[in-house]
């Protein structure tokens, strides 16, 4: 019998009741009495010198409250970067100023130049058209490699060049060079990890509200981490102390990383509401989202694998150019380094691994973490490379992988991290059965008879979740801790509110977190609710990204619940006139071991708040505990994915036949939600591999600036997935043994798709070594033309 | 959106009168025009909605000619043509999504003449007649390049008369993002011979592939097209495909359309 309560059960998502009945409270649903509206006048050129911004006529337009420009932000802090990367010579990365509104220059299409605050949005837009701009357009740096050439246009004149940092990590050059020199075979691959736009269903919104009476600011914003925004904006940009700044992220309609970062619009509405003593609201249009939400990925990589005569991997070397865009977004610098380089060993026991990353400024929208953040780029490069090696060597790609799998744990990689557990052969075994790999060649023949090229692509992945041990990331340059926090407040009647630092924007925390507390106390889940998203209500936790919520914040919640249990046992011991050591908690009853004496959960909680018969001399009344949890290590979900598809050789069009994912997520609290997370991740991985392409022309104009040209995956683009998470190697260092499942689908799926297309083409006699994503019909057809 | 006056006449005559005002513009289903207005790329002073004019709505079969009111939405065409002209029903039934099909009209589509739109290929491929409040225009004379037609200022498409061919098929190869046609080919075989109309591909908008028509007039079979191709010169080249790719698709899809038309 499947459980219907607690850990391992799959209750329906509670939050869906309000989402599906239109009762969600999103930021745009928040309207504050007397609010004004801001419209941002954004640059339509990629690079230019601002000679003049004349707002005189515009300021006289009906409804205009005030027009702000960069000049109003002289002396105000710029948007900070949360991670300082050190280059291979020990120098700090270059960190350009990132003003809230452009000062002196515009650096990408969409860079905000002026902010028009008016009584209505239409009036603000009308006034924007009356602003006279005098901008001298400059040549733009768009292509990363060209941007590093001498004489390239400088995105930031004061930096001298467009190189943010040149980072090297892992095994020393001499060792790696020697391994390559001695290799029996070297496989080399050049590839691009395509730039993506996250496109959460809900665009970004920010409402700034200032209460002059007590000098308090409130920012309502579409954020994955309200405390991080309070920290960054309060401390670095506007200089508002924590107790005077409240950040609320209510229901948020999808984040995918792009709502982690602190954005100019948030700082603007907070700043302007204080200046004007009026609330200021901004709601992004979809067009603005394309040119102002941080983009994702955008790596150009050369990767090389050395193998010995027995096909053992002996060394790996990567050389990546990572696009930063025009400014450093909050976590832009760590995504291609510490979240990418550390995963470059993959599932393999390659003894020497060296990662080189050049981060480059260009006149494009800033690039930052997007679902998977660095790990998809690592997985894609490595798993494409291993597949290419297998083809070159004429060996079975799965056998080549298995031969090189890490099988002993814990395993310290040459790129700093230590995998605690895993069983890569187990997930691969499951996968091969799920897709009937043995029967594939028959299916290929049958398809060929219909004129179709059928291919099967396989890959594995490992990723690092549960971000992150604070002391470690501190050494690596993080400017914040990455612990999380939870407060468990038990009410007098035994019901419970858990205030968590994690933020749910689609993940289902409101359903899952109560399952854990209910399990620990032996009570019904319906007695537990979580509270999240408001810095005035929750402890200082760091929010949700990097598949960290359950592994880090959930662990804090477990620790706090343990404290509750300890105290409750003391109270129960008093009520039962027994010694504390003899008290057992089971099914919501405290009993004295070996007797039939017991007292119910609700009696104990009532005693805590009505302490008439209570050991007041020993313990305080009340039942509320907080815990902060800092993880000892990352967690390492892993798995194996496969895609089977058919290519129409006449048009290059791909039809996915089946997609299977065999994951090891450690322990699973709610299997239904885990499956949903994998499904969503796979859809995004399929989107990246098949459809999504954020493209700029050589002048820095965004070619894919709307859904007319930016292809999002739709229901008919994805198959019915086969997913499995029955292989469980629990995480060894957090109390729940959980690893995280939020990003795996997006990390693990793109190589399976590309590998499958190449298997189809090569199996059909087309000699094609690689196709860049997205594999649009035209690209596949072009590749087949030789 | 800039502000504008709004009128919703119930007869063609009233609509024509309303459209004679300075900067007046007709509003069909709004599926193209409304997004344009929202982006502030157009600023009509008066928007004249055609949606209340019953006389330009509906579909009837007049002795082998499908007479489609200019204000008929795609969903209604898809339903009404299902038995008499299934190729057209398929075309209309695959435009956009249900919301687009329930609002967008054939008149709006033909007036707009987007180079990637579907209807222009049906009109040209059937040798249709575009009927307006003042005259009748043969499809061969109507389409004059991307977003350009024979329509005069203020002229309203009141109906489209499409001779129902003996055989027909429309094959649409979707642009992955917009799902308009990257290339679409409408092939018909009727009393006056074969017509092959291609949309999505050319920088000049919808066109007839006359070479293919000649070959198919001789033998209405996909094999008659073996060795025939169109040049990639003058074809649209963008993020979604080069001119050469589009030219290649024209040949592939024409063959597929002929095969489908032959059932
Ligand atoms: C998401 C989406 C997907 C789409 N996909 C497709 C597709 O796959 N294939 C495709 O072909 N189209 C597609 N379209 C376009 C759709 O078919 C539109 O309905 C059509 O292009 C315009 O018709 P309308 O009635 O909405 O015209 P409107 O938007 O109202 O008007 C368009 C233009 O035509 C003029 N006009 C309107 N009616 C008349 C008339 N009777 N006489 C004279 N002038 C008139 C207007 O003044 C305006 O200039 C799509 C649209 C959307 C929004």
TrEMBL record, chain A:
Transmembrane segments: none annotated. InterPro entries: Ald_Oxase/Xan_DH_a/b, Ald_Oxase/Xan_DH_a/b_sf, Ald_Oxase/xanthine_DH-like, AldOxase/xan_DH_MoCoBD1, AldOxase/xan_DH_MoCoBD2, AldOxase/xan_DH_Mopterin-bd_sf. The keyword Oxidoreductase applies. Keywords: Molybdenum, Oxidoreductase. One of its GO terms (molecular function) is iron ion binding. SUPFAM superfamilies: CO dehydrogenase molybdoprotein N-domain-like, Molybdenum cofactor-binding domain. Its EC number is 1.2.99.2. It is an enzyme of class 1 (oxidoreductase). Gene3D superfamilies: Aldehyde oxidase/xanthine dehydrogenase, a/b hammerhead (3.90.1170.50), Aldehyde oxidase/xanthine dehydrogenase, molybdopterin binding domain (3.30.365.10). It comes from the Bacteria. Residues 21-139 form the Aldehyde oxidase/xanthine dehydrogenase a/b hammerhead domain. This is Carbon monoxide dehydrogenase large chain. It comes from Tropicibacter naphthalenivorans. The gene is cutL_2.
TrEMBL record, chain B:
Keywords: FAD, Flavoprotein, Oxidoreductase. InterPro entries: CO_DH_flav_C, CO_DH_flav_C_dom_sf, Diverse_Substr_Oxidored, FAD-bd_PCMH, FAD-bd_PCMH-like_sf, FAD-bd_PCMH_sub1, FAD-bd_PCMH_sub2, Mopterin_DH_FAD-bd. Its EC number is 1.2.99.2. It comes from the Bacteria. GO terms for molecular function: FAD binding; oxidoreductase activity. Residues 1-167 form the FAD-binding PCMH-type domain. PANTHER family: XANTHINE DEHYDROGENASE SUBUNIT C-RELATED. This is Carbon monoxide dehydrogenase medium chain. The lineage of its organism: Bacteria, Pseudomonadati, Pseudomonadota, Alphaproteobacteria, Rhodobacterales.
């Amino acid at each position: 019998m499947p459980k219907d309560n607690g850990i391992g059960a799959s209750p329906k998502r509670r939050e869906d009741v309000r989402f599906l009945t239109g009762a969600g409270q999103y930021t745009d649903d928040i309207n504050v009495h007397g609010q004004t509206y801001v419209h941002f006048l954004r640059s339509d050129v990629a690079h230019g010198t601002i000679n003049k911004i004349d707002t005189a006529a515009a300021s006289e337009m009906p409804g205009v409250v005030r027009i702000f420009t960069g000049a109003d932000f002289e002396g105000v802090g710029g948007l900070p970067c949360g991670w300082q990367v050190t280059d291979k010579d020990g120098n700090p990365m270059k960190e350009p100023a990132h003003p809230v509104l452009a000062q002196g220059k515009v650096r990408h299409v969409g860079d905000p130049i002026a902010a028009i605050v008016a009584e209505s949005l239409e009036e603000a837009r009308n006034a924007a058209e009356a602003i006279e701009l005098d901008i001298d357009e400059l040549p733009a740096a768009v292509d990363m490699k060209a941007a590093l050439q001498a004489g390239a246009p400088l995105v930031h004149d004061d930096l001298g060049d467009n190189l943010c940092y040149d980072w090297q990590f892992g095994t020393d050059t001499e060792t790696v060079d020697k391994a390559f020199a001695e290799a029996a075979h070297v496989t080399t691959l050049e590839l691009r990890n395509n730039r993506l736009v996250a496109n959460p269903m809900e665009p970004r919104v920010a409402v700034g509200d200032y209460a002059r009476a007590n000098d308090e600011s409130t920012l309502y914003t579409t954020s994955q981490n309200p405390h991080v925004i309070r920290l960054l904006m309060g401390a670095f940009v506007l200089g508002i102390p924590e107790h005077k700044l409240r950040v609320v992220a209510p229901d948020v309609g999808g984040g995918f990383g792009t709502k982690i970062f602190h954005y100019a619009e948030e700082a603007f509405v907070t700043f302007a509401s204080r200046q004007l003593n009026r609330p200021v609201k901004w709601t992004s249009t979809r067009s603005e989202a394309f040119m102002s939400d941080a983009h994702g990925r955008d790596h150009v990589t050369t990767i090389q694998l050395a193998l010995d005569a027995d096909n053992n991997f002996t060394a790996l070397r990567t050389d990546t150019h990572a696009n930063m865009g025009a400014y450093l977004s909050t976590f832009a610098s760590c995504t291609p380094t510490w979240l990418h380089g550390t995963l470059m060993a993959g599932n393999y026991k390659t003894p020497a691994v060296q990662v080189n990353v050049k981060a480059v400024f260009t006149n494009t929208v800033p690039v930052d973490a997007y679902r998977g953040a660095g790990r998809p780029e690592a997985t894609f490069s490595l798993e494409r490379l291993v597949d290419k090696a297998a083809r070159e060597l004429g060996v079975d790609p799965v056998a080549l992988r298995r031969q090189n799998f890490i099988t002993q744990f814990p395993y310290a990689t040459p790129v700093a991290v230590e995998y605690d557990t895993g069983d890569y052969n187990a997930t691969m075994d499951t996968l091969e059965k799920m897709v009937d790999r043995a029967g594939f060649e028959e299916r290929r023949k049958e398809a060929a008879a219909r004129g179709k090229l059928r291919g099967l692509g396989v890959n594995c992945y490992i990723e690092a979740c549960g971000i992150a041990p604070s002391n470690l990331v501190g050494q690596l340059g993080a400017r914040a801790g990455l612990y999380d926090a939870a407060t468990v407040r038990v009410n007098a009647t035994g019901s419970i509110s858990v205030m968590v630092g994690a933020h749910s924007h689609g993940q289902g925390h409101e359903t899952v977190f109560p399952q854990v507390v209910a399990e620990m106390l032996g009570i019904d889940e319906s007695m537990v609710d979580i509270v999240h998203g408001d810095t005035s209500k929750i402890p200082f936790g760091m929010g949700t990204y990097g598949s960290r919520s359950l592994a880090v914040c959930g662990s804090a919640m477990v620790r706090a619940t343990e404290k509750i249990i300890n105290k409750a046992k003391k109270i129960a011991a008093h009520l039962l006139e027994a010694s504390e050591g003899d008290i057992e908690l089971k099914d919501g009853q405290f009993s004295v071991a070996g007797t039939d004496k017991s007292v119910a959960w609700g009696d104990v909680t009532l005693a805590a708040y009505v302490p008439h018969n209570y050991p007041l001399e020993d313990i305080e009344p009340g039942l509320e505990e907080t815990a902060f949890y800092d993880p000892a290590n990352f967690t390492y979900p892993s798995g194996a994915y496969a895609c089977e598809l058919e290519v129409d050789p006449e048009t290059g069009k791909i039809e996915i036949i089946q997609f299977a994912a065999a994951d090891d997520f450690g322990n699973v609290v709610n299997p239904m939600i885990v499956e949903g997370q994998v499904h969503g991740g796979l859809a995004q991985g399929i989107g990246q591999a098949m459809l999504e392409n954020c493209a700029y022309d050589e002048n820095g104009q965004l070619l894919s600036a709307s859904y007319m040209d930016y292809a999002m995956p739709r229901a008919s683009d994805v198959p019915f997935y086969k997913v499995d998470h029955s292989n469980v190697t629990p995480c060894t260092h957090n109390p729940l043994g959980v690893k995280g499942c939020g990003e795996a689908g997006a990390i693990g799926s793109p190589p399976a798709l590309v590998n499958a297309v190449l298997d189809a083409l090569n199996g059909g006699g087309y000699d094609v070594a690689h196709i860049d994503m997205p594999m649009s019909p035209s690209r596949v057809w072009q590749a087949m033309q030789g | 959106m800039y502000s504008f006056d709004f009128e919703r006449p119930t007869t063609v005559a009233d609509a024509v009168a309303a459209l004679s005002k300075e900067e007046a513009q007709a509003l069909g289903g709004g599926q193209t025009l409304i997004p344009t207005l929202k982006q502030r790329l157009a600023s009509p002073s008066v928007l004249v909605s055609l949606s209340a004019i019953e006389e330009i709505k509906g579909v009837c079969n007049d002795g082998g000619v499908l007479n489609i009111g200019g204000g008929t939405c795609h969903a209604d065409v898809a339903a009404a043509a299902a038995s008499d002209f299934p190729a057209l029903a398929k075309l209309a039934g695959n435009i956009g999504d249900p919301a687009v099909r329930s609002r967008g009209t054939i008149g709006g589509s033909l007036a707009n003449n987007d180079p990637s739109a579907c209807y222009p290929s049906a009109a040209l491929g059937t040798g249709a007649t575009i009927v307006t409040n003042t005259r009748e225009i043969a499809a061969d004379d109507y389409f004059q390049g991307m977003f350009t037609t024979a329509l005069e200022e203020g002229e309203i498409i009141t109906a489209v008369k499409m001779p129902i061919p003996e055989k027909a098929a429309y094959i649409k190869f979707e642009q992955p993002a917009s799902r308009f046609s990257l290339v679409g080919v409408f092939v018909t075989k009727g009393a006056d011979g074969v017509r092959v109309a291609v949309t999505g591909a050319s920088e000049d908008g919808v066109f007839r592939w006359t070479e293919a028509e000649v070959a198919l007039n001789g033998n209405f079979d996909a094999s008659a097209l073996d060795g025939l191709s169109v040049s990639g010169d003058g074809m649209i080249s963008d993020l979604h495909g080069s001119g050469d790719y589009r030219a290649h698709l024209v040949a592939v899809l024409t063959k597929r359309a002929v095969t489908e038309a032959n059932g």
